[in-house]
Amino acid sequence: MGPIGLFDSGVGGLSVLRQLQKVLPQEDYVYFADTFHMPYGPRSKVELERIVFSICDFLLSQQCRAIVMACNTASALVLPHARRCYQEPLFGVLLPGARAAAQVTRNGRIGVLATEATIRSNAYPEAIRSISPGIEVYGQACRSLAPLVEQGELEGAQARNAVHQCVVPLLLQGVDTLVLGCTHYPFLLPLLNQVVPPNVSLVDPAEHAAREVLAHVSSAVSGGGNTKFYASGGVPQFTRVAEGLLGATVEPQAARFRIAANGLIVELE
Ligand code: DGL
């Protein structure tokens, strides 16, 4: 059986990979970091569809038997359409995150920290209200957080101020639950825990997404627990930051996008 493929605009999806490795340690994984197109947050749905479809095609060409969109922006904007186009199982992080948040809230007020595109898509409020119509959902677009994590800036004044600016407006709305609606944000947990009061629950969709994958993916014949990495740009920086976040050696192979007649194609360098 083939590996499980995952992708994100950069290091964010590693927060999903490490949760998957916890629940499915014997699986082999292929991780595609689209550092060439990072950040996804300011991009349009049309642009993201083109990018995401080419990454899915690439992962399937690497024999992946299932794909996890380890990215909230892709899960919000592209996953529903992609599910209609591919036969292979496709998983996302948004619905598992929405379900978890709807279960956790006690006062029915949930805040969502996410990229501009995820907030604009309204996918979190729609998903949460489809589960529990009475819940109020407040979104906060955080332009600077994912790029900070991508550079490995997880502490210090700049990161602290950025986290503060994103979280405070949601706290002022009286939320008792905060969804980390971008896979880069769990790496800011130490800072978030300093800013967010203890009576507010933090929900990391990655944990819940990994359990959903576990429930659907048959591990009857498993691999050796190996992960292969690809990065579409800035390989040295991705390697440095990814190794710091995972505490393990990462040796990504360089990949690039080529414009073809029928869309984008990912090729190995
Ligand atoms: N990590 C991604 C997400 O979950 C995308 C961050 C970005 O590239 O803007 O939304």
How does this model look, in words?
The protein has helices spanning 14-23, 45-61, 72-77, 79-85, 94-104, 116-121, 123-131, 145-150, 157-172, 189-195, 205-216, 235-246; strands spanning 4-8, 29-33, 66-69, 90-91, 109-114, 136-141, 177-180, 201-203, 227-231, 253-260, 263-268. It has 269 residues and is of the alpha/beta class. It has two domains: 4-92 and 208-268, Rossmann fold, CATH 3.40.50; 94-205, Rossmann fold, CATH 3.40.50.1860. The strands form two sheets. The protein has a seven-stranded mixed beta sheet. The chain is globular and about 50 Å long. Bound molecules: D-glutamic acid (DGL). D-glutamic acid binds next to α3.
Instruction: Give the count of helical stretches.
Output: 12
Strand order of the largest sheet: 4-3-1-2-9-10-11
Q: CATH top level of the largest domain?
A: Alpha Beta
Biggest sheet details: 7 strands, mixed
Q: What does the overall shape look like?
A: globular
Percentage of residues in DSSP E strands: 15-25%
CATH topology of the largest domain: Rossmann fold
Taking pLDDT < 50 over at least 5 consecutive residues as the criterion, the unreliable ranges are none
Report the mean per-residue pLDDT as an integer: 96
| Secondary structure category | alpha/beta
Helix percentage range: 40-55%
